[in-house]
Structure formats: C-alpha cells, structure tokens
Amino acid sequence: MLKPLGDRVVIELVEQEEKTASGIVLPESAKEKPQEGKVVAVGSGRVTDNNERVALEVAEGDLIIFSKYSGTEVKYEGKDYLILRENDILAVVG
Amino acid sequence: MLKPLGDRVVIELVEQEEKTASGIVLPESAKEKPQEGKVVAVGSGRVTDNNERVALEVAEGDLIIFSKYSGTEVKYEGKDYLILRENDILAVVG
Amino acid sequence: MLKPLGDRVVIELVEQEEKTASGIVLPESAKEKPQEGKVVAVGSGRVTDNNERVALEVAEGDLIIFSKYSGTEVKYEGKDYLILRENDILAVVG
Amino acid sequence: MLKPLGDRVVIELVEQEEKTASGIVLPESAKEKPQEGKVVAVGSGRVTDNNERVALEVAEGDLIIFSKYSGTEVKYEGKDYLILRENDILAVVG
Amino acid sequence: MLKPLGDRVVIELVEQEEKTASGIVLPESAKEKPQEGKVVAVGSGRVTDNNERVALEVAEGDLIIFSKYSGTEVKYEGKDYLILRENDILAVVG
Amino acid sequence: MLKPLGDRVVIELVEQEEKTASGIVLPESAKEKPQEGKVVAVGSGRVTDNNERVALEVAEGDLIIFSKYSGTEVKYEGKDYLILRENDILAVVG
Amino acid sequence: MLKPLGDRVVIELVEQEEKTASGIVLPESAKEKPQEGKVVAVGSGRVTDNNERVALEVAEGDLIIFSKYSGTEVKYEGKDYLILRENDILAVVG
C-alpha cells in the first residue's frame, strides 16, 4: 500500500477508453491539458499554522480531473500510480 | 457533474453573440482581455490558517467577467467548460 | 451593473480635460505615470486569514489616482471602465 | 488635497539648497542614493490579518530620507509630490 | 548518531535489489523519478508561528518514497545517508 | 539626529584601524565579506500581524558585524552613516 | 565574544583530520556537500508573528553538519568562524 503524506493523494490513471465512457474529452488546443484519474489513497492533510490538519476534499474512489504535468509517477506492485498534491486537482467528476 | 475543488469555479463560456446582447464589448487594445462566462458550479472555498472555509462570492448562475488566459479548459459530456480560481474573476455582471 | 470581486474597484476613466480642471497634471518624466479616475463600484474586500472581510478605503464617487498599466479595461453598455485592485490606487483626491 | 491609501505617504520634495541647510549631503559613491522630503499627508496604515490598521510611524511635517527611485511622482495644483510606501522611508531627520 | 533538525529526516538508501523485492519499480520515463529509502532518524518538527512543533508524519523504520535530487548526501561511520525535508517525501510504503 | 524607521538601525562605520584593535580581521576569500560598525540609533521595530512592535536585539553603542553591500549610505552633518535592516546584522561583538 | 543575532549560530570549523575521527566522510559526488563544525554561540532565536522567540534546537558545544556554501566567514581574535542561520544546519552529530 502507498500512504501519501500531507496534502498528497495517490491516483490510478484512467485509461483513454474509460475516459470516453465517463464523458470527459480533452480538447486538442488546451494550454494546460487536464487528465482523469481515480483516487486510491489520500494523505492526512496539510498542517496549518495553528497546528491543525486540514482534511482533504477528495476521498478514496473519487474520479478526478487534474492538471497534466503535475505530480510524480510511481510503479508499485506492477501498476502505475501518480502522486499529486490536492492543489493540482481541478474537480471531482460524478 | 463537475464539482470544482477549493476556491475554483466551473464556467460555461458565453458565446460571442450573447456577449453583445449582455452589453459587454471587449476593446481591441486591452492588455489583459477579459471574457464573459456563466458560473455552473462553485467549490467549497479555500481553507484559512484557522481551518475555516472562505465561502465564494460568486454563485451558480452568476454572469461573470474573468481574465483571459486564466483557468483550464475541459470538455465534459460534449460541452466546453473552464475551471477557474475565484481570484481570476474580475466582476459579476447584472 | 458591474460588481467587482474581493478588493477590486470599477473605475470610470476621467477625461484629459477634466483632469486639468481637477488640478492633476502628470509630469512627462514620471517612471510610473499615475492616472485619474472616478470609483463607480467597490468590491466587498479581501478576506483575512481570520475569515473577516477588510472593507475598502475608497467609496463610490471618490476621485482617485492610480498607477498606470494596472488593472483590466472593460467596455460595458457602451462605456469604458477599468477594474483595479485597491492596492493599485495611490491616493484619493479632494 | 491628496489623501494617500494604506501605508502610503505623500512627500513634498526638498530642494537641493534646503538639503544642504538641513545637513544632509549625499555621497557620490552611494549604491542606493537616498533623498530628502517633507511628509504632507499620511495614509491610515496597512491592515493586518487580524483586521487592524497599523498606524504609520511618520507624521505630517516630518522631514524624511527615502530611497531614490521609489514611489510615484504626481503634480497636483501646480506642485510636485511623491507618493511613497512607508517601507521606502529610511529615517526621520530632526 | 545523526539527529536531523526541524522537519528533516535521515534516510538510509534502499538498494536496487531490495527495491524490486518491495515491489517498487521506477518507470524509465518519469519526469521526477522517486526513490526509496528507510527512515533512520526524524527531526522534532518545524515550529509554527504559534511556537508549536509539528510532529513529523513519518517514523523511524518507515519505508518511504522521495523525490529524486532532493536532500543532501552524507557518509557517516562508513554508511551512506540522505538528509531530507519531510516535504520531499511523497509516500510511506507498506 | 537620524531616527531610523521600523527594524532599521543607523550605523557609524568603524575605521580599518579600529577594526584591527577590536580583533576582527576579514579574510580575503570571504564570499560575503562582513563589516564592522557601531550602532548610533535603532528603530522602534517591525510590526507583527498582531499589531505589536518587535523590539530590536541591538542597542545604541553596540559594536556589530554586518553583511557587506547591505544598507544605504547617508552623510549627515558631515559624518558617514549606514542605514541597515536588523536582518543584515550578523552578530554583536564584545 | 561574538553574539549572533536571531536564529543565527557561530560555528568553529572542524579540521579535516578531526572530521575523519568523528566518522564523517564527505562523498566526492555530493551535489551539496555538507561540512562539519562545532557550535560556539547561539542567537536568541527568530521572533514569530505572535512576538515570541523560538529557541534554537542546537546548543553551544554541539557538533553539527551544515550545507556547504552557507553562512558568512569571520576571523575574530585570530580564529576562523562561520555565522550560519539555523536553517542551514542539517543535523547534530553525536
């Protein structure tokens, strides 16, 4: 299992085929092309200056759109994941 | 449905024809050309260091002017949307 | 009507003729040339980290000097406006 | 009258002759040459994140030294002024 | 013993062989290649503006993934270590 | 008299001869060569976001080492001074 | 005596010979080579926005590793010192 730190989430990349099924089509001309993924793990949130954790808005299982070129790719137990900061997530789909 | 995160909003781009109807005409010489859109979804707001959400000033249905070149284009269920941060919205029209 | 967001104001540009009347003359050599305008709408203010709005110092009807090249030009119902952040306003005249 | 906003002050430039009289002589080799001026108006101060105004340290009539190349020149009712942020003021003379 | 300061951790680099055993395989094409390590010492945490220490999320013995090119290499008593800030740790594995 | 603002101090430059006497010798190879001076006036301190002044650590008469190339040179009543921010002071000597 | 300001410390550089004795060997390939030193004086700490001093984690006599190229070299009463910010200290050895 991968447990992300702070305000990070672990994302399973959604295949191009599934993408069409869920209705998201990415325009050719987009300056900052978004991508779709499924949240498989969420961090415990960033810590404010008042020493409180800010819980993430997304939860395990959420289908999300995120900014392309953000995050770090990881291959774990044979599957590809992406570790993102919540700030790179644009919206939840569904 | 697209549910934006944090202080983001989802905008439906207003067609050039509608723009004339609502009275906004963009000057040729504008350094940072604004554009018009209709808010279709708002995020729950950014979190302050006191761990409180700051509700957005704009609401669903608002007609807004935003800075050109801001945000990320998304095509969802065949329609074009733009996901913006509230900070890129200049004014509400109406 | 244009309702600016946050700490923004909507300014009606003051004509060169009026400028002379109100006594402001801009020096040729100014590095950052100021300009004059009349406030026609003010935002509800920025939100502090304590989730309070900071009311703007300027009010509707104020004659102001602002830094040239700041803000975004908008033409609305046939008139030219400028949307500025309060921070780009140097002084109130009068 | 010019009423500066926030932590700004309006300065009347002190003539080169007066400068000698008050005892300030600027060295040729100074990297960042200071200049002298008289405060003619002060803003109400910046607003902290606790929504309190921080009163300025300088007052009307103070003779000050400020960093050259800071601020914005304004000509108002035939006289030259400079609008500075308090942070560009180095010291009060007197 | 090495006792890291603030929000730093001391990491023992995990050999390429062990890496395969634990299931992490790094993709060739990763823009920001993550690496694996074992936490051998943690700092007491950063200090907030309220003068409180924020305890680290990772603990001694944790197997972690961190961003390549982060941290500082140190050889201590014949072994190689890496001193990282917690912010450069992407996730805990296990 | 020069009364510095905020977290600034006015420094009287210590001559090269005195420098040797007090035991400070600056290495030729220093990347950021420090210099020695005597504090002749201190500001009332910076204002925190809680609207409190932070008193300076240095006092009138202190012999200090500061980073070369910091501050602004001023000649006042025939003597050379340097106006520095307290942050540019490295240490008090003595 | 040198009394560092704020979150600074005064470091006595540890000779290459001693370094080997204490077990620290610096790798040739290190991007940011750390160095070893002994703390001879600590500042009273930085001041938070709540106007409290944050005591330093290191104390007089600590053997530390710090990032090469950080700090300012000073020669005082014939000995070489380095004045560092605590943030440039990676770990305490011992």
Ranges of chain A where pLDDT stays below 50 over 5 or more residues in a row are: 16-21, 28-32
Proportion of helical residues of chain A: under 10%
**How would you describe the oligomerization state of the chains in this entry?**
homoheptamer
Spatial order of the strands forming the largest sheet of chain A: 8-9-2-4-7-10
Largest sheet of chain A: 6 strands, antiparallel
Structural classification of chain A: mainly beta
Name the CATH superfamily assignment of chain A.
GroES chaperonin
User: Looking at the structure, what is the overall shape of chain A?
Assistant: globular
- How many helices of chain A in DSSP terms? 1
Task: Round the mean pLDDT of chain A to the nearest integer and report it.
Answer: 85
CATH architecture of chain A: Roll
Q: Look up the CATH topology of chain A.
A: 10 Kd Chaperonin, Protein Cpn10, Chain O
